[in-house]
Amino acid sequence: MGRRGKPLRVLMIAGGTALGAIVVAALWIWSTPGERGPSGGFEPFCWPAGLATVPSEPRGRVNWMGHWLGEDKRESLVREVAAEFGFLHQGIEVNLKFPQEIMGSRGHLETARFVAAMIRSGRVEWDVLWLEPRTYEYVAEELSDPDWGAKHLVDFREIPGFAETQKPFIIADPAYRNQTGGILTGPYIEGYYYALWYNQDVARRLGLTIKPAGMTFEDLLGYVRAVAEYNRNHKEGVAAFYESSDWVTMEILFQRLVKSLLSFEEGKREESSPEKLAALRRTLAAFEALGRYDPLIASHGENQWFATRGLVLNDAALFYVNGTWMYSHWRGMNPEKMKKMAPVELPAFGETDHYLGGYLPTWAVMKATANREHAIDLVMFWSRPAIAEKWVRYTKNPTGLRGHLASPAWSSDVFERFVEDVGRRYVSRVDYSSTAGYLLGRENWGLQREIEAELILILTGETSAEEAYDRIMALCR
Question: What is the pLDDT of residue 37?
Fold first, then answer.
């Protein structure tokens, strides 16, 4: 190439080096910090659809209320998405803060009060909210308006391309949008099943073998009776159930028992019926039977859920009723102690072809924000096949996003087997109602907390099933 070729060659080498640096930087941002692919290398980099180049946009900002702080790889996924979105949208500042940083605590009720106050003030400080159905319900109670979402939140059914990112049943089944006032507030990233978690060390100490599936209420009552017998003969006792004051998770067991007496379709329908009232009466009587054995942890009235959710890891209780997300909570707290915990199917009054679980929208976008379009872009950024794959791999939970085509070869531990078995047995016939509408009708949707209060009174022996039933009926419209 002579004299003319040498400078050209130097220029090509320099240019290639710069390009390589950009590609490596992109790969690093796209990958989990410290996370590697199956072969030990970086995760494969791919541009999201429609983004062939880094866009040049006007200076903007998205104020994003995050979720899953301290919950193992769930938090990692949030931070990855923030980094990826910021890299691909150089003109947008991503202001990610978690509820603990914004409000000083993390909880559905605290978040709902914060959101309701923001709406009342007319000042939108957070464009993207952490908003699950339970939080939506609490905001509705704060505002005395079950349809507040239609007034203040973006309905993602109206966003072009959104429907194609969700699994078909999410769009087709009205039960999902009915959880949030008749609108779809965002992508259904999180799938879950409810479980009866038990501490395997405690079970061994009690000499109990817990059924992994097909457990009846009589089986559960036998386990609780055995705990009471153990406590009568040992100075160091143990509770049958962990419970907290700000999240009454025994309501989950209650709902499972009620719905086990109903068909899948009837259990979802927001109408009362003689069959549902009979199921209510029978389930309250079952709770009265449990209450004869003083089943709740002694501190249940003072326990704040987020601060005390690890008590069961410390052998304070045999059972805890909650979702499969507890895998990430406990793994984030203490990976070794988490290995004590095993999930099994919730008991029922008889055989059923449906189960308790579902899919949750995690974020919502406020309508009245100057950053609305950027906020929508961020939430749509979550609605991708790449997120579906990462979610399942990181959390070992199902997802409502399209793109996860096959289950990995799980079965290496009890948790993986549980998720795989429940998913295979019930497929999409899973449901959970965050309001009382499924039992008492849409007009009585706001009585969930009153039902929860009655359950605690029954379990602590302070009232009878019949007295609780009469009080609930007296509150109905």
Answer: 38
Domain around 351: 193-358+430-475
Whether residue 3 has pLDDT greater than 90: no
Q: How far is it, in rounded angstroms, from Cα 127 to Cα 234?
A: 54
Residue 252 lies in a domain: yes
In a domain, 9, yes or no: no
How many independent structural domains does the chain possess? 2
pLDDT tens digits along 397-428: 999 999 855 444 445 578 888 998 999 999 88
CATH code of 207's domain: 3.40.190.10
Shared-domain flag, residues 210 and 354: yes
**pLDDT, position 320:** 99
Token pair recorded at residue 387:
């997120």
- Residues near 279 by beta carbon (within 8 Å), at least 6 away in sequence: 257, 258, 259, 261, 262, 439
180-197 tens-digit pLDDT: 999 999 999 999 999 999
Q: Where are the alpha helices (DSSP H) in 234-349?
A: 250-259, 264-268, 274-291, 305-308, 326-333, 335-338
User: How much is the pLDDT for 413?
Assistant: 75
